[in-house]
Design brief:
Layout: H1 14-19, E1 22-25, E2 28-31, H2 36-45, H3 56-74, H4 79-89, E3 92-99, E4 102-109, H5 115-130, E5 135-137, E6 146-148, H6 161-178
Antiparallel strand pairs: 1-2, 3-4, 5-6
Helix pairs in contact: 3-4, 3-5, 4-5
Length: about 180
Amino acid sequence: MTVTDPRPLTGEPVSLDLLNTRWMADGVRQDLLTDTAGLTVWLASNGLDARFPADATTLRHTLAARDALSALVDRPGDPDATARVDAVLGHGRIRATLTPEGPGERPEFAEPAWGPGWTAARDYLDLLRTNPERIRKCAHEACILHFFDTSRNGTRRWCSMALCGNRAKASRHYARTKDN
């Protein structure tokens, strides 16, 4: 039985998708990763379910990675937040490989339960190398979602125009018309 991912924003790079396992719904903070069932959903939505178990240890390590990434996204360059993400990265490494198909790379973990969290932290490094200024928090004051701005001119403000963008437009319209 497949469980539908209940989050309002999915499909972001895995590091930001991990952050987006917390969201707001009707003014109440939601959290997908309260148990291993939610971890199963998140692993599946990121194509990690075949590689890593959705058990209590993996959940605990994934939550540690989420907290570390959240601290760093909220406080870029903060030494403590940087050290916390670096500690997550210390649980894995990239191994160069050569197969009949050619050269490649494969992540390795002393403890596979760190795999999903390490994968998210490693992805965050890739975003920092690619375009750090495009790692964004939604501009709506009640939203806690993050996204990687892939718009051509780099001016995306909302996690979703259909959700937060329209709410902001409706609020501005209401403010203009209520005084008339």
